[in-house]
């Protein structure tokens, strides 16, 4: 399978699998179905289990991969979208962009994996950058 086609198939499968995980519990440090997921652990799990691609474990390490930077207007399903707390401070949260200005993420303790919109005021203020790990 040519590289571009394989990346497209993998990205589609990553997004489909993320949808299947909606409702799974957030757990700080978690990166598996058994443990639950934190925000970066969710992406590590998705890319590792579907595309056999090893991502950095932390949000900060993911952002450090500047060669993979993507502008907001260039977002494609499968891209990692990053946020800080209410528009201030360091970037500390990541989700998986799924298209139509929406993303899937593991939000915080006591919550479950869910879909949110980049159009939401909180996420608009908090958005900082994006990375493409699918090639």
Account of the protein in words:
By secondary structure, the chain is α+β, with helices and mostly antiparallel strands. It has one domain: Alpha-Beta Complex (endopeptidase fold (from Nostoc punctiforme)), CATH 3.90.1720.10. 31% of the residues lie in helices and 26% in strands. The protein has helices at residues 3-20, 39-51, 59-63, 121-126; strands at residues 31-32, 36-37, 80-85, 88-99, 102-105, 114-117, 127-131. The strands form two sheets. A five-stranded antiparallel β-sheet has the order 6-5-4-3-7. Strands 1-2 form a two-stranded antiparallel ribbon. A hairpin with a 3-residue loop joins strand 1 and strand 2 (36-37). Helix 1 packs across helix 2. It starts with a helix and ends with a strand. The model has no long low-confidence stretch (mean pLDDT 91).
Quick take:
31% of the residues lie in helices and 26% in strands.
Name its key features:
five-stranded antiparallel sheet; 4 helices; alpha+beta; endopeptidase fold (from Nostoc punctiforme); 135 residues; two-stranded antiparallel ribbon
SSE topology:
Blueprint: H1 3-20, E1 31-32, E2 36-37, H2 39-51, H3 59-63, E3 80-85, E4 88-99, E5 102-105, E6 114-117, H4 121-126, E7 127-131
Antiparallel strand pairs: 1-2, 3-4, 3-7, 4-5, 5-6
Biggest β-sheet strands, sense, barrel? 5 strands, antiparallel
The top-level CATH class is Alpha Beta
The whole-angstrom Rg is 14 Å
Order of helices and strands: HEEHHEEEEHE
Please count the beta strands (DSSP E, at least 2 residues each).
7
Structural class label: alpha+beta
Into which percent range does the helicity of residues fall? Answer: 25-40%
Strand content: 25-35%
- What does the oligomeric state look like here? single chain
